[in-house]
Amino acid sequence: MKRTKHLAIISTLFVLIFALAACSSGNGNSQPSPSPAASNESTEPATAETEQPSEEPAPVEEEKYDLGGREILFSAWWDGTPNADTPEGERALERQKEVEAKYNVKIKYVNQDYHQTAEKLSSTVMAGKPFADVVLVPDYLIAGLLQGGYFTALDDFMDVRTESKMPDEVIDAGSYQTSKAYGFNKSLALFDNTGMYYNKRIFEEAGVPTPAEAQDQGTWNWDTFIDYAKKLTVDTNGDGKPDQWGIAAAPNVLGLSLIYSNDTMAFDEKTKKFLLDSPNAIEGLDMMSKLYNEYKVVKRNEGNDWEDPAKYFKEGQAAMYPGGIWEAGSRLQNQMKDEYVFVHFPQGPKAKGFKVGMSQFHMNFIPKGVENPKAVYKIWEDLQDWNIEQSDREWAETYFLNEESINNALATLSIMEFGRYNAYNFEENYNPLANDIAAGKITAATGVAQIMPVLQAKVDKFGQDSK
Fold first, then answer.
1. I need a surface site. Which of 162, 216, 250, 363 has the fewest CB within 10 A?
2. What is the distance between the alpha carbons of residues 98 and 209, in angstroms, rounded to a whole number?
């Protein structure tokens, strides 16, 4: 992964210098070759007076900006103001102070409602006064805003590949099937990766080996997952109904986790094709149906697929919970009495290893109408901590309670495959299908066959509209 471009540029310059030197020296030393006439007359080495000085490239001078005390606003769906209570926050405040002095600006942060971001951005851009200079946009809102022309293309004011510090995969992700890059971020987000949480107390009291132990032993697969879920779905009060379940999950989340773990994706980012009808994906959705209807190890939700599964897990009603890394911070930490541990989602029968599918990527954008967008981008870039490995570890250490969870969370970056589908309103068709499969109303193959033409038509239309 290309973290920065500086070393590559410097290396390229040295290669050019040595290549020029080699071309100017026929005998391999550092002295210039004599003229044809001189070569017949003398083999004496050239004197200092006749040596030609080597030309070194002039250093690239960094552009300087003085924005006259201008206020630069950064928007997200939280207050992004750095907090000095952590080492990371202290460093962020120090960087902010340096950036404010370097560009003669004052940096402030806007806490904008997640779902209202599109309305706020579009209305203020149309009025000629963007509400912020840099806006973090939720993934599902990006496509519509981009097609509406509300973003400034980074290519309009710089050569993104050479002038930015962004990795190529981030630059590519920010183009959204267009010829220009619009979105920016310093890396693919650790907290958007997914895996499996489990309640350590429930496993210990039942005398069942933990998923972490199975993962270490190389046996953390679907068969072990099913075995654990069966053993931990129990009727503890004797009323004939389970009051502790092996799994708490939303059908759409569980289905996608099974698809990814079976070595496929819901959507292929490169080919722009949905893959739900692939044999591996159908096998994953069939397994979801079995977990609900044959093995009966998943606690069914009571009307809220977003809130109910996390609630059941926090209350100790379920032993395992597939979820995002971000949930450790906002949903679990200090909200449950039992210790939670994070592991990979169990490996499917078609997979050779663990796999995570990243289906969304929230990105920053500079709205149309923002003055001096290049300076604004450079301000954002200078504010970032480009020691990404360290910042990811610090984030994980803040929200996970044990070393195995921290290491498993960080390891998701090496097993993650990128495949976004929110631009195509995927969940409008997939979520009802997942619910029907979980309810036993339809088979995976039949349901997928019904929605595939609709899904692919959305992708094709988006591609045409983006040209």
1. 162
2. 51
Token pair, residue 441, equals 């109303």
Check if the beta carbon of residue 232 is closer than 8 Å to that of residue 198. Answer: no
Q: What range does the domain containing 333 cover?
A: 191-358+410-465
pTM of the complete model: 0.80
pLDDT at 19 > cutoff 80: no
Residue 445 maps to which CATH number?
3.40.190.10
**Residue 58 within a domain:** no
- Phi, then psi, of 159 in degrees rounded to 5: -85, 100
Euclidean distance between CA atoms 383 and 432, whole angstroms = 42
Total number of domains constituting the chain: 3
Please name which of 388, 361, 378, 360 lies closest in space to residue 133, comparing C-alpha atoms: 378
Residues 267 and 319 in one domain: yes
- In this structure, is residue 281 part of a structural domain? yes
CA distance 70 to 420: 36
Using pLDDT thresholds of 50, 70 and 90, give the confidence band for residue 429. very high
| 306 and 170 in a common domain | no
Domain identity same for 348 and 369: no
Neighbours of 165 (CB within 10 A): 16
> What per-residue confidence (pLDDT) applies to 54?
52
Residue 326 scores a pLDDT above 70: yes
d(CA 136, CA 185): 9
Distance set, CA 276 to CA 157, 338, 359, 444 (Å):
40, 36, 14, 9
Asked whether residue 175 falls in the same domain as residue 197, the answer is no
Residues above pLDDT 90, as percent of the chain: 73
The answer on 444 and 324 residing in a single domain is yes
The mean pLDDT of 38-52, rounded to a whole number, is 37
| Amino acid identity, position 111 | N
Instruction: Give the Cα separation of 276 and 215 in Å (integer).
Output: 27
Looking at the fold, whether 349 and 419 belong to one and the same domain comes out as: yes
Is 247 found in the same domain as 328? Answer: yes
Cβ atoms of 160 and 377 within 8 Å: the answer is no
C-beta of residue 218 within 8 angstroms of C-beta of residue 353: no
Beta strands in 127-240 (DSSP E): 134-137, 194-199
The bridge status of strand 70-76 relative to strand 105-111 is parallel
Domain-ending residue, one of 371, 395, 419: 395
Is-contact 203 220, C-beta < 8 A?
A: no
- Do 183 and 205 lie in one domain? The reply is no
- Sequence-separated (6 or more) residues with CB below 8 Å from residue 13: 57
Contacts of 452 (CB under 8 A, 6+ apart): 274, 276, 277
Residue listed under structure tokens 């379920």: 318
Which residue type occupies 396?
A
Any domain includes 404: no
